[in-house]
Structures are given as C-alpha cells and as structure tokens.
Input
Amino acid sequence: MSAAKHHEIVVLGAGVSGIYQIKRLVDLGLDAIVLEADEDLGGTWYRNRYPGCRFDSESYTYGYSFSKELLDEWHWKERFSAQPENLRYLNFVADKFDLRRHMRFDSRVERMRWDEDRRIWHLGLANGGGYTARFVITGLGVLSIPAVPRYEGLSEFEGDAFHTYHWPKQPVPLAGRRVGVIGTGATGIQVIAEIADEVEELFVFQRRPNWSTPLNNSTISAEEMAGIRARYDEIFAKCARTHGGFVHLAEQRRFWDVPPEERKAHWDRLYDTPGFAIMASNFPEIFYDREANREMSEYIANRIRERVNDPVTAEKLIPKDHGFATQRLPLETNYYEAYNRDNVHLIDLSETPIERFTRTGIRTSAGDFDLDLIVMATGFDAVTGAWDRIDIRGCHDLELREKWRDGPNTYLGLMTCGFPNLLMVAGPQSVSGSTNFPRAIESGVDWVTTFLEHVIGERRTRFEAKPEAEKEWNDEVVEAQNRMLMRRSRGWFTGYNANVEGHGEGAVRYVAYWGGAPRYHQRIDRVSKQGYPGVDFA
Ligand code: NAP
Output
C-alpha cells in the first residue's frame, strides 16, 4: 500500500448519507473524498430498480433539508416518489453542488487496517488501489447486502433469476412470462402488486405473511408543491419532534380510555391516511401492550378479509405468528387485490416448502412450478452486513466482524471502541434504521461533521469511544428494544434473516435504537454540548 493516495477524510458510500456527508466536508474546505463500490452514485436508489420500488416516507420528508435553494428547485411529482425519480433527485443534488468530482466510483473497499504508529487508516480496494486517511466515515447503508436463499439447484435454473437488489438496468420483459416471486416483505409486496397485471402467471412463494396497509399515494401538482415549499420549515420541525421522524403526529389519547367504536373510527381514518400514519398516529399501546396489539391486529386482519375474495387465500395472507407493527410494516398499493386475479397464485411454503430449484423452475413438496423468471425478494443481511463484508482491523488487529459476531456494540451508533478515528453515519444502534431514514442521516451527518470540526480544531489526531460509554449506550439500546412487543420478532428490525448464517432462529440482535428520534437526537446533542465525555482524545 506504499503507493496509496492520502486524504484527511475518506467517506465510504455515495448513497443518501455519503452525498450529504461529502457536501458538508467540502464546504468546510476539508480534504475529503467518497469511495463508492458501484459505478455511480445513489446507493439504495441506484441498486433497487425492481418494478414498484418507491419511497414509503413522504417524498418531501425524504429530500435533504439543508439547502433552501434545493428545496425551492425540486418538484416532487408524487407523495411517495418512485425509484427512477429518486435516483434523478440524488443526481440533481450531486450535480447542483458539484460533488461528483469528490467521488471515486468502482472503488469497493475490501480491507481497512488501523495504523497506531501513524494514526491513520489504510484502505485496500478490490480494484487493487489503496488509500490512507486520518479519518474514515462510513455511509454504508443498512440494507445494502442482499441475502439470497440457500436452495439447492439455484444455479441450475435456466431462466432469469435475480435478487430484487440486482434487478437489471435494462428492461426485463414480463408480458407473457411465468414469474415466481419468493418473499413477501416490503419489497415482495411492491413487486407483486406492480407486475400482477403484466405477467402471464404470477406464483407468490410465501413463507410467512406480513401485515401490510395502504400507501395511499397520489400525485403532487405544481400548486400543491408550492404549498409544500412554503411549509418546509414546519414539515421538518414536525419530523424532528415525532418518534418515527415522520409528519404524522402521535395520538395523545390512551388506548384503554377510548371506547372500542371510537378506536375503530380512528383506525378507519388512519387506514385511509397516506404513509405510516397507521403506525405513527396510532395508540402507542399497540407497540407495548399485547391485548391492545391483538385488537389492532384483528382490525387489520378484517381489512384483509374484506379485500381478498377467496377466504382461504385471505387467511393465508394474515400473519398468525406476530402482531401488527411488530416487524417492519410494508405499505402497499392494490397488493391484496392482486390475489383476486386469476393469474396470481399464492403458494404457502409453510404447508408446501420449497425443496429445490430445478432447470425449469421451483420444486415444492406439492410439485413443480415451471417459470421463466424467478424474483428473489428475500431481504438483506441488514444493518451490519456491509461492515461484515469489509475486513476491518482496529487496535491490536481487533476484527470488527469478530467484535460484532453476536450483534453490534457501538457508542451512540456513531463509533465503536477499538476502532479509532472511525465514524458511522447510519450506523448500527442509531435511529437510521428505526425512523425516517433521511431525517436520521441528516442529523447523523451534522453530528459527525461538528465532531470532526472539534477534533480538527483542537488539533487532535486520534479519538476513540470509551468502553464504559459504549456499554452504557448498549444498555439503553437493549432496554428500549425490550420494552416493545417486537423485541423478539423475526424480521430485520431485530437483525433476523435466516439466509444469513448466525442471524436465523434464536438469534436476537440489537441493531437499532428504538427510543425514538427526538430522544436520540437530544442524547447526541447533549454529548456534543458536554464536549464528548464518552470519547478519549489524543
Ligand atoms: P424482508 O422484509 O427481510 O423480507 C424478506 C422476505 O423474504 C420475507 O417474506 C421472508 O420470509 C422471505 N424469505 C427470505 N428467505 C426466504 C427463503 N429462503 N424462502 C422463502 N422465503 C424467504 O426484505 P425486503 O422485503 O427486501 O425488505 C427489507 C426492508 O427494505 C424493508 O423492511 C424496508 O425497510 C426496506 N424497503 C423499503 C421500501 C420502501 O417502500 N421504501 C421498499 C422495500 C424495502 P420470512 O418472513 O418467513 O423470513
């Protein structure tokens, strides 16, 4: 690595986090670059090109808030904007602020080694290149490592097969084809609803159903957009004070104080309200109180029964193993109606599991399904997956993936002890995975930038989280999760994915902070104001 190029700061990832992070750093006149594994910027919105892929945060809360000019210039066309537009937006931001020249594409970092003598990081790239940096900031994303199922015969299938994350750039023909979709999480639900009327036959291979509620999307006219622009300050202020970082205000009444018929009327309103209102503006008890959750789940189950014509199919689509909102809630548009179509078939893998892939399709215990295309909407090695893919060695050759083997440990989701001069935006145990992502990363980037200004201003060359501060934060993360009914659910919110070794049955990991956005932001602000008592400087 002797020919390695040096920059004071290297940012990993040119997605939503990395784009804003580099903007802040270059504005301060710091010597910084972004290394991006892909051939272009955009991260999640560059990769996920599958049909139906769109925001489930209100578009105008997903965009960056840091520039009034940017807010004035960009017109969101839909309340929940789709992937092509979202990628255009990120490119617009990068071009407007001339950020591309600070980005190096096709630069996948494979190795990072801390050099205690020189107090720098050495970074080794898959393409053979190398960099050194005083400080490294990760913007690796929480859902950037697809998890492919480990079925026998996968490579024998002669049709097209890919994970949704790897949906090709060139158009994929759907008309006249027999398509299988494996997985019914947020991604599967979007794909299924979108392609049901385009394909000849659609076979949905469902292992466990998810609860899902309407997205209630609509277009945004120029006039409406002008109104949104005038209210941007108010919108962002609202996001900052709500638990999930969304525009939906919390319900103030207590579940048990409201008569059942009024509760139902409230839920009827929420079911027709766009976005995550059905969670964010619901009675908080549904997240903590088993009985309240049971009643809410039954309400949603009845909505599914109303929408699906065949009662047997409806029952198969209703989760029986977990309550409403105890896993990530997928939002849908005409998902349940897809099952009323003659060309859509639900294959219940809990009754007839997949045995293997074959040359012509998928074999379940009930028989063979011949397919032209298999779409794997099977989720991600979430939150820590992207860190695990890099061989990161800190003090005394400590390996990060070894330290995090049973789950991540961090200080405020922003750094982890044993790994000096390494900062994480959207890190494990922050609120980036548990609340409105861009709102969380914007404040994460701001915190990291202020912290680095402090470090550089004080002429420090080394910082590291203190072990006792990390332990204290870990305890808070565990306590917040354990208060909720979702604490042991089988979804990525608790670090579960059976396709990833060690992350399957029985493994409970604490990968996100569930105490809410306002509490988290107050906590990290307090730490800055107190002069970072949980950090050792040298
Ligand atoms: P996911 O929520 O982890 O769902 C994966 C699905 O695949 C589950 O239904 C799972 O079944 C199934 N599955 C996994 N392995 C399987 C196997 N070997 N055989 C059969 N089925 C298998 O993943 P996702 O749907 O990609 O969503 C991940 C996250 O991405 C979301 O929760 C969300 O945060 C984000 N996302 C956001 C949007 C948006 O609207 N902005 C859209 C899509 C995704 P089990 O439940 O039985 O494991």
Observations:
- The domain at 5-144+381-536 is CATH 3.50.50.60 (FAD/NAD(P)-binding domain).
